[in-house]
Amino acid sequence: MSYAFLKELRNLSVVVLHPMDEEGMALTDHLRRIGCMPQLVWPVPEKLPKGTNIVLVAIVDDQREALRRLFRTMENPAPTLLAIVSYENPATLQLVLESGAMAVIGRPIKPFGLLTNLAIARNIWTQTQNLARDARRYKRKVKGEQAVSRAKTILMATRNIDEDQAHRELRAEAMSRRIAIEAVAQDIIAGAHTQIAGIASVGEEIFLSDPKESD
After folding, report:
1. Which residue spans adopt a coiled-coil conformation according to this UniProt entry (predicted)?
2. 69-90 core/surface letters (b: 16 or more CB in 10 A; e: else)
């Protein structure tokens, strides 16, 4: 077991959504022994406590709709979620999938393997967040490159220069203003849109004007 993960556990807020029965109390006590800061919550709340990092949720038949409503309120990124199930049937499996659970704990709950399940679920959650962050960065990069390309096209058309010169002018402007070249590109695109809109507006006014007034 990674020492870094065990150390991280001490700083994670863990919510146990489980009836306040013997099993729920035992689960909460065991989580506390392995270094978590668990909070036993029941019935199902409208929202999770602020700052929740990990949720262990009991899939209880008569709480399905309440659980669905709760899952829909979870912020993005949602906490690491582990589902506790009594049996496998289509309705239970569907709710587990809807929850976005990254691990499943079967009943009766046994202390052995709980820490491993937590570690695996948290690791999957971390990898998922890293992938999402990389995807956002890549999307921003592509959008930035597209903006620079469009801005260069505008400069080439309006100033009668080649692509290399357009790029040099973009870069010089970015350095002069101490901002990213993508930001300069966006300004140029916005300016071109404004100019086009202005020309279109003037054209529309001329088209709609009274011919007698033009005489």
Report:
1. none
2. ebbeebeeeebbbbbbbeeeee
